[in-house]
Every structure is written in C-alpha cells, then in structure tokens.
Amino acid sequence: MSSNVESSFAFKWRKVPSYGKGRTLKDHKAWFIKRYDFLNEGNLMAFLNSSGSVLDVGCGSGINLRWFRRLAPRIHIVGFDLPEVVKLLSRRGLGRIADLRGGDLLESPPPGQFDLVVCDQVLQHIPDPKRALNVLRGLTRLGGTLLVNMYAWKGPTREAVDAYLRSATVPMTRERAWQFAEVITRFARDLRRFDWGIQEDFYRDVMKCFWREGWTFAENTAVNFDWYHPEVAHRMTPDEFLNLIKNEMCLVPKWTDINPSNISVRCVKE
Fold first, then answer.
1. 10 Å Cβ neighbour count for 54?
2. What's the CA gap between 258 and 242, in Å, rounded?
3. Which residue, among 269, 223, 259, 267, has the nearest Cα to 238 in the 3D structure?
4. What's the CA gap between 79 and 186, in Å, rounded?
5. Can you give the residue ranges of every domain in the chain?
6. pTM of the model
7. What is the CATH number of domain 3-153+235-268?
8. Cα distance between residue 267 and residue 270, in whole Å
9. What is the pLDDT of residue 196?
10. Would you call 204 exposed, middle or buried from its count of C-beta atoms within 10 A (0-12, 13-18, 19+)?
C-alpha cells in the first residue's frame, strides 16, 4: 500500500474524531442500509446475529465496529486497516469492542475466513483492486456474504477537472492538502446554500465539492480531503465492476446499488 494513502487516512481520522457520531452516524446508517438492501436496521441486526464472524476491511473511524457491536454483542468482529490507522483506533479504545488487525490487504491480510466481509468505500484506494477483490473473496467463507463498493467513473468534464486538481494536490503535504480541501468545502457550502440543486449538479458533473448540512465543517472537509490527497483513487463503470465481481471473481451479486458517486454490491460466495 502506498505510504501516501496510509498517512493520508491516519491524518484524516485524527482531524475528525467526531466522525461516526451524531449526524454522520445517522447518515452513514441510512446510506449503508439502503446501498446493501437491508431495508432497515432490524434486518441488519438479524443478519449480523446470524453471522458468527464479521470482518470490516478499511474500518477507518471505527463507525461500523461500534455500530455492529451494538447490534450484535456476541459475534466475533475483526477490524482491519493500515497500521497507522489501527494504532489510532487502539488509542481510542476500539480494541475493547473488536479484534483490531493492522496490515496491508495485498501483502498481509488478516488470517481466517468470515461469514460477512465488509469493504465499503475502500477498494478505490487500494493499488490493485482486482487483486484486492480476490483477497476479499478468499477471506469470505463458502456461503458467506461480501459487501463491497467502488467509486464510479464520472463524466468527461468531472474526470478531467478531478485529474487536473489531483495532479497538484496529491504531492502536497497533508496539512497543505487539508487547507486546500477546506477551500473546496467552503465553496461547496456556499454553493449549496445559494442553490442546493446547483451544488448537486456541480458535484456530479464538474468537480468533487462535497457538502452536507448537519455535518461539521471538519467532517465535510474530510470527505473532500480523502479524494484530493491519497495518490490511489480508482474509478470503474458499473459494467466494469460487475464484470470483475461476476466473471473474474465468480461471486454472485444479490443486490447492486448504482448512483452517480458509487457502485455498491452485496454478493455471495457460492
């Protein structure tokens, strides 16, 4: 894994200790439940409790670890992320609710197999998504479920603008890139407050400029930062991603959610 990716995300999570609480938690729950077709939290609770073991790859802020533990107090939960991120989670006490493992998914994945493997909003930041998906398949037990997500390929203008801006922001220091992300966040906030429809269209078609009302300024900035600073940021079309899952990994998609930003797939290893 690129050292830039590890340091970027460790820096991001240090900047936003509030992420995974309050409004960000509420929005995350609703988005996760919708994208993976659980319909409501009760269905997710039942699904988790029927699973003996869960692996959250790229556990980040620990948002899923806390949530899953509350819903399923007795199951075995493993949180896996890059070592610098795992150290931060350990200092914040997440080791009391989950088995934390640090490493590089491509080089040192966690041992064992799991009934449920979650890799949400992570695959795009791994240097070789195909190889990573093969590792995730190996971590999923026969008959188990894999929840996986990939950043979607945008239109030509958005891709060109993002590429131009990232050519300048990726080499920046983390501190300088965060300052850049703050500028983008202010722009997105002001555009949203002027006309939310314009901000949505601009975000979709022109450049990454995220803003969500109810989140703190830093929480919004973190979303922009983790696109503009990490040097690895893959995108795929829905057809490319589904072909990789179905035809190359021989996984069976049970549900696919496609939106302008992401492609999320709930699949089973049969």
1. 25
2. 11
3. 259
4. 33
5. 3-153+235-268, 156-228
6. 0.95
7. 3.40.50.150
8. 9
9. 78
10. middle
